[in-house]
Amino acid sequence: MANPSANSDPVTLEDVARRVGVSARTVRRALDGGRVAAWDCTARREEAIRRAAEELGYVYRPNAAARTMTTGRFNSVSLLMSTRAGQGLLIQEMLDGICDELEEWNLHLSLIRLPDRQLTDADSLPKVFREGMTDGLLIDYFNEIPAGMEAAMNSLDIPTVWINSQHPADCAYFADAGAARRAVEEMIKAGHRRILYADFSNPAGQTPRHYTGTERRRGYEQAMTAAGLKPLILQENVPHLNRVAFARDWLCQHRQSLPTAAFCYHISSAISLREGARDAGLRLPDDLQVACFADRIPDLAYAEIPAMVNPWHDLGRAAARLLLAKIAAPGTHPAPVILPFTWVNADRLRPPANARKAARPAHATL
């Protein structure tokens, strides 16, 4: 590409047009990426226009308002979140996945944060939604979705996709039950029979804030029941500072019938359980094998924990791809996209200590 000096006059659209021998309007349409056959311009001429623009160092900045008037698109997708903390989760890998998918289509992403009172009332939704000033919405709101919010979103005339939230259609989320079932099945294959399910985030007997609280426990129970084993549940919403002591006390109280393994709702529960086990005098992983769900691959001190890891980048791309399909086909409601987890550190899953001891060959005596 040419590099005009700082003293050169800026290259204009007309300069490119003169180089190729076409009108400025033809250059604008070619650089906007429209369909050349509709402008009486061959594909070869379009390529000549792009090559001339590159050689001259011309940087084309299309006028968004003008483009929208002719195409009906803003080339913009919005990520919608609540102003209330904890209702969504903006993970870097997920954001990267969204942006990577949109960039392939020359679309950009904007972030919109709204209070719940606006998200639940169609009449109070901002003009940006009601007047279609964005091509579609990715909804990052999955904890305790307020009554009326889904209806308000469905009333919009723009496509919407929910991220990490279960709905009959128009959503992308993870296969939590299947991942939990697979992990527990692997623990059973390793020889474990008394396997604990530990969840220190969701209170027992209440509907969890997020679908994962139900789905992960369900997958665990399915694996245990299918193997003819009795589920063992330790579930309580415990403050973070009290979790290690809570786990230690439970293990001490059940010392006569301790589990040989535990599968945890989240790595935060797994870490607390491991620390509580050490405080209770247990050896890890000899006395207690711990596995869990994790947002990222465990590292440093916890690198040996087998874990089902959320592929957040894949989720971001899948949600953006689903939204683009809806933009291309207005009025459609595609089935959910359900993504599998990544099972890491599986080689760290060990049999119970008594099984390893029994498997050792007997020493010959002289």
Structure description:
There is one protein chain. The protein is of the alpha/beta class and 366 residues long. The protein has three domains: 50 residues, Orthogonal Bundle (434 Repressor (Amino-terminal Domain)), CATH 1.10.260; 126 residues, 3-Layer(aba) Sandwich (Rossmann fold); 149 residues, Response regulator (Rossmann fold). 39% of the residues lie in helices and 15% in strands. It is built from 14 helices and twelve strands. A six-stranded parallel sheet has the order 2-1-3-4-5-11. Strands 7-6-8-9-10-12 form a six-stranded mixed sheet, with helices on both faces. Helix 1 packs across helix 2, helix 1 crosses helix 3 and helix 11 packs across helix 12. The N terminus and C terminus are likely disordered.
Set out the fold topology.
Elements: H1 13-20, H2 24-31, H3 43-56, H4 64-71, E1 76-82, H5 92-103, E2 108-114, H6 116-119, H7 127-130, E3 136-139, H8 149-154, E4 160-163, E5 171-174, H9 176-189, E6 195-199, H10 211-226, E7 232-235, H11 243-253, E8 261-264, H12 267-279, E9 289-294, E10 307-309, H13 312-328, E11 337-339, E12 342-344, H14 353-359
Parallel strand pairs: 1-2, 1-3, 3-4, 4-5, 5-11, 6-7, 6-8, 8-9, 9-10
Antiparallel strand pairs: 10-12
